[in-house]
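To illustrate this point, what follows is a protein record of this kind.

___
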Amino acid sequence: MKISYKKINPGGNITALVFEPVDIDRRGQVEKDIRADDSTIEQVGFVVPVRDAANDARLEMAGGELCGNALRCLAYELWRRRGGKGRTEFIIETLGVSEPILTAATKGYAEVALSLRTISITDMLDGKLVRLPGIVQLVLKRAVTQSQAQEMFEVNGLRGESAAGVISITQARDRLQIRPLIWVRDTDTWYNETACASGTMAAAFSWGLTKGEYIEVVQPSGAIFFVREYQGRLILGGPIW
């Protein structure tokens, strides 16, 4: 039976949201089927019942990873379904975190916010290791191949993580540019993502944020994401449609 889905573009990293029930052991195959049906889709998120009635929604990825862009997509779809007026905040449960995630959406724009308490950074010989909820990112000032990334994950003990990535950064004037290469353990898949929310947050966090300042980060898609620190949270916002 063909699964229906909602396709949303969060500035690259096009996401399909599935609202009908899908057993956990079928989600990997459903994701493959959806991506085969539409090659522009990079990932699939499954919207399931909340565990706490105080929250607005729950999102689970096939690989069990945290995905900032999928959270933004769900926030935007909730905003549209609830009338699509003004700016609305949503509390969304997801895998890989012990507490729900704050998101927000308005016309053509969506945000995701992570508590600074859940983010840590460690210096490496040629970059930074940034640990976020549900994913670890290696931020480097050079590009790497998939085989090089695999070796780096082995050396740094990251093969046991639910998801890990290498974020290659360059600076262009007053902006950062990123090239994300993401690995998801449970599906054993690699993605050269056209946009990456967690990678963008890791890049901005490793670069250094002044309180209240925005850092602009250009995605491979050409979209610009904005990252700032506010009230104990690292907040990412960007275009969506």
